[in-house]
Amino acid sequence: MTTTTINLSKIVREQPLLMAEIDRIAEVAGYLWTKGWAERNGGNISVNLTDLANDALKTLPALCPSIPLEEAMTALGGHIFYVTGTGKRMRYVAQDPFANGSLIRIAQDGKSYDIIAEQPVRPTSELPSHLMMHNYLRSEGRDNKVVLHTHPTDLIGMTHCAPFLNSEVITRTLWGMIPECRIIVPKGVGIVPYEIPGTIDLARATIKQLEKHDVVFWEKHGILAVGEDLIECFDAIDTLSKSAQIYFSARMAGYEPAGMTDQQLDDLVPAFGL
């Protein structure tokens, strides 16, 4: 390990609040793997760490030449993100987030980014999509910090059934399985018809759904959640997954689950301030 690497590591790791968030990223990556939602290098995470970074970190030199972005991220100039690496497995992110992801800094004009720590690990190929979502949400005044994408088996399975490719239908079905789903995912879920993974078209279609929802289903592909806290994003997907498991368990037992009534769901709104 070189002196430069040691000094860089010291700048990063002597920031307790930032490292606590990195530890949380590793924790959630482990959950994704143990849940069976992260086959091979499936899924990715990006977290805005700007508010947790000190001046020394914000001004670190780049580890490699700047990397241009297809679109200018004008709401993200100077922001710092942790991003999981391209081709990296979540099970390894859980063990060593800095060997399987990196800190990046968006240029002030939003047209490129630098990898600044701790190793020059190239971010996920879906980084442009992540940044487009962060940029959109910031420009709308939403204090978004997280984009989490993963592959829950049961939720993806529902998108192979045509009636569930309707936001109102799939939301009502999942809400109806357990009260917590209505409480934890109060905006319901959006649906994006199948697009090739990693494309700008997929990102744009997702952003349209983020106008109303914090969780979006990608047909035959996966789930994406946004928010201010990574654990809360994971919990939203986990709760939806529990609802899907209840639904499929009932169907496999040979009956259509009755689900909660409209009145039962409506009663949750004043009870929990939804």
Keywords:
single chain; 274 residues; alpha+beta; L-fuculose-1-phosphate Aldolase; 2 domains; nine-stranded mixed sheet; 11 helices; 9 strands
In a few lines, what is going on in this structure?
By secondary structure, this protein is of the alpha+beta class. Helices cover 43% and strands 16% of the residues. Strand 8 and strand 9 (222-227) form a beta hairpin.
What does this 3D model show about the protein?
The chain has 11 helices and 9 strands. The chain has 274 residues and is α+β, with helices and mostly antiparallel strands. It has 2 domains: 3-124, Class II aldolase/adducin N-terminal domain (L-fuculose-1-phosphate Aldolase, 3-Layer(aba) Sandwich), CATH 3.40.225; 153-272, Class II aldolase/adducin N-terminal domain (L-fuculose-1-phosphate Aldolase, 3-Layer(aba) Sandwich). A hairpin with a 3-residue loop joins β8 (215-218) and β9. It is elongated and about 60 Å long. The N and C termini lie far apart (52 Å).
> Can you list the strand order of the major beta sheet?
2-5-4-3-1-6-9-8-7
Terminal-residue CA separation: 52 Å
Give the class from helix and strand content and strand pairing: alpha+beta
Instruction: Report Rg.
Output: 19 Å
Mean pLDDT score: 94
The global form is elongated
What's the CATH topology label of the largest domain? L-fuculose-1-phosphate Aldolase
* Low-confidence parts: none
CATH hierarchy: architecture of the largest domain: 3-Layer(aba) Sandwich
Helix content: 40-55%
What composes the largest sheet? 9 strands, mixed
**Would you identify the CATH H-level superfamily of the largest domain?**
Class II aldolase/adducin N-terminal domain
